[in-house]
Design brief:
This protein has 19 helices and 17 strands. By secondary structure, the chain is α/β, with parallel strands linked by helices. It folds into two domains: 257 residues, 3-Layer(aba) Sandwich (Rossmann fold), CATH 3.40.50; 195 residues, no CATH class. The strands form three sheets. Strands 1, 2, 3, 4, 5, 6, 7 and 8 form an eight-stranded parallel beta sheet that branches.
Length: 491
């Protein structure tokens, strides 16, 4: 290796005695923040650390000014996949908690697996360091990280002001629209009078404060993956219709088409309420620390922009391996060969990838996220065992080091267009709803951006004897991926 750099001088002793500082996972980062470390200490990407620090400081400054001027503010943090939006939110929550009690903050997420994994990780870490019971450790972690739906239910029980003055909503674009929220409240809570979207209700909860309050919304572009998820515009609709006294802080990137319909945005929002802070956009990926081009490559892959994707893949290849294979056993062996130390491997697939079942990839078997993402190699429930599979709902907001993405016929190609399908009964049916097409496309966007170090894509051969797994369904996918320049992994 050193022969490649003849002009470089390496001090072997200095190198051997220097600290090993790998980029942490979101779980490791959460533990470090909870224990008082800063984002500069835990982010090993210099540009990523600087970006996160600037964003966090911008928010803390807004919190300070909101408190001193008795005003209510809502901030929208956008960012590319893996840029550290969740990390920024956790950092802001821990920093704010260190202030006086009046600024008590809480990190909220509707992502059940993420909440479960982070709470469990914080509790396990604390038990390992201190003489506390697991129950006590989990209870304390639960006051810091809450499920947004539980927060909503607490607010419904009483119309009094909430204790928290600062709330951070992770994946705020996934908050429910009015139709889904009202239906849920009527069906599950017996509340037939509820008539608000989740964003409108949540802003209303914080608006109960007589003096000041701050809401921080963490927004991922192209991340809506489920029916009834409102998207970003629902927040601005609520602000325009019901909470015109709130100051709005955004970056100019929020008007990118990946986040929302720009035409509707300009009609909804009062420009006098907009405060632009470009530090509220996280542009650098810290998840894929070996390359910052992955999210852009995946975007162009899914947008069928072949030449752009080809160029980005060339930039990825040297330090972020991506392969495709028709043999699942080869994919598994590759994952095992790449793993080093505590690095995690795992298999992921779309929640509607029903016809991967012949390969023992059963997306209908629900995993326990805490076990999948936290347990050791000898536990059959862990990701390491390569038996359980995580779907987009399990892994959104989380990550693995080396990933096998299993690709089914629910998203295949006809000519130069995607064919969107769902499996019902005994056959594939075309998806006609544009919204449901978007959910499926975004599911694959999530799956293809979960690997920190590299991935292999498994595309089955198909089976001539099985009308649900015709070879042409899968060949179109495989041929497209190889056309982009993704190398074939074989034995």
């Amino acid at each position: 290796m050193t022969s490649q750099y003849p002009d470089c001088t390496l001090d072997a002793m200095t190198w051997a005695e220097s600290n090993y500082k790998p980029t942490p996972t979101i779980v490791q980062a959460a533990q470090a923040l909870y224990n008082g470390h800063s984002v500069e200490e835990i982010s090993r990407s210099d540009s990523g650390a600087e970006n996160l620090s600037l964003t966090s400081q911008t928010i803390i400054d807004i919190i300070e000014s909101s408190k001193s001027e008795n005003k209510k503010s809502i901030c929208f943090i956008t960012g590319v996949p893996g840029s550290g939006k969740t990390l920024a939110g956790l950092h802001i929550a821990t920093e704010t908690q260190s202030f006086e009690e009046e600024k008590h903050a809480v990190f909220l997420s509707g992502n059940g697996p993420l909440v479960s994994v982070l709470r469990e990780a914080l509790a396990r870490d604390r038990v390992s360091r201190e003489k506390v019971t697991k129950k006590e450790a989990k209870r304390e972690a639960s006051t810091f990280i809450k499920n947004v739906h539980h927060f909503r239910d607490e607010a419904l029980e009483s119309e009094e002001r909430m204790h928290e003055k600062v709330v951070i909503f992770d994946e705020a674009q996934r908050a429910w629209n009015k139709q889904k929220t009202s239906y849920f409240m009527k069906t599950n809570k017996g509340n037939s009078e509820f008539d608000s979207s989740e964003p409108e209700f949540l802003i209303g909860v914080m608006d109960r404060h007589k003096d000041w309050a701050v809401i921080i919304c963490l927004i991922g572009g192209g991340q809506e993956i489920n029916d009834g998820e409102a998207g970003l515009l629902e927040w601005f609709e609520a602000l325009a219709n019901s909470f015109r006294n709130w100051q709005i802080y955004i970056s100019s990137n929020i008007e990118d088409s990946e986040y929302m319909d720009v035409g509707r945005f300009s009609k909804i929002v009062d420009s006098n309420k907009l405060n632009y802070r470009d530090t509220l956009h996280l542009s650098t990926s810290i998840r894929s620390f070996r390359s910052e081009h992955l999210s852009n490559f995946v975007k162009n892959l899914l947008d069928l922009k072949i030449e752009v994707a080809k160029g980005l893949l060339l930039r990825l290849k040297s330090n972020y391996p991506i392969f495709v294979t028709r043999d699942l056993s080869i994919a598994k062996e590759w994952l095992k060969s790449k793993k080093r130390g505590s690095e995690r491997t795992g298999i992921v697939a779309s929640s509607s990838a029903i016809r991967l079942k012949p390969f023992a990839i059963n997306v209908k078997d629900k995993i326990e996220a805490e076990n999948y993402f936290l347990n050791d190699e000898d536990d059959i429930r862990s990701s390491y065992f390569l038996e359980d599979v995580a779907t987009e709902f399990d892994i959104q907001g989380l990550e693995l080091d080396w990933v096998c993405v299993a690709w089914d016929a629910n998203l295949s190609l006809i000519g130069n267009e995607w064919l969107y399908r769902e499996f019902r009964g005994s056959k594939w049916n075309n998806i006609n709803s544009d919204q449901n097409k978007l959910y499926l496309k975004n599911a694959y966007r999530v799956l293809l951006t979960r690997a920190r170090q590299g991935m292999v894509i498994f595309v089955p051969e198909g089976d001539m004897e099985d009308h649900t797994r015709k070879p042409e369904y899968y060949d179109s996918i495989f041929n497209y991926l190889t056309q982009l320049g993704i190398e074939i992994l074989d034995s």
